[in-house]
Amino acid sequence: MRENIHLGCEKCTRRNYHTTKNKKTTTGKLSLKKYCRWCKEHTMHKEMKL
Q1: How do residues 11-21 score in pLDDT, each as one tens digit?
Q2: Which residues of 2-38 are buried (b: 16+ CB within 10 A; e: fewer)?
Q3: Angle subtended at Cα 39 by Cα 11 and Cα 46, rounded to the nearest 5 degrees
Q4: What is the CATH number of the domain that holds 34?
Q5: For residue 10, what are the domain limits?
Q6: Number of domains in the chain
Q7: Which family does the entry's similarity section mention (predicted)?
Q8: What's the pLDDT tens digit per position in 1-50?
Q9: Strand partners, 36
């Protein structure tokens, strides 16, 4: 079953992206390197609570 999640910047903690993940195969928190338009650089974005 896929679950909707929000990705937030680790520097400014703003929620910039939303995506889905498979709960069965990815049990931990998802972390991706994405572009933050407020920080104006590529930063790590972690899964945040809705």
Answers
A1: 998 999 999 99
A2: eeebebbbeeeeeebeeeeeeeeeeeeeeeeeeebee
A3: 40
A4: 2.20.28.120
A5: 2-48
A6: 1
A7: Belongs to the bacterial ribosomal protein bL33 family.
A8: 899 999 999 999 899 999 999 999 999 999 999 999 999 999 999 999 87
A9: 41
- pTM above threshold 0.85: no
Query: Measuring CA to CA, which residue among 30, 2, 32, 35 is closest to residue 16?
Result: 35
CA-nearest of 50, 43, 41, 38 to 6 is 50
pLDDT for 4? 94
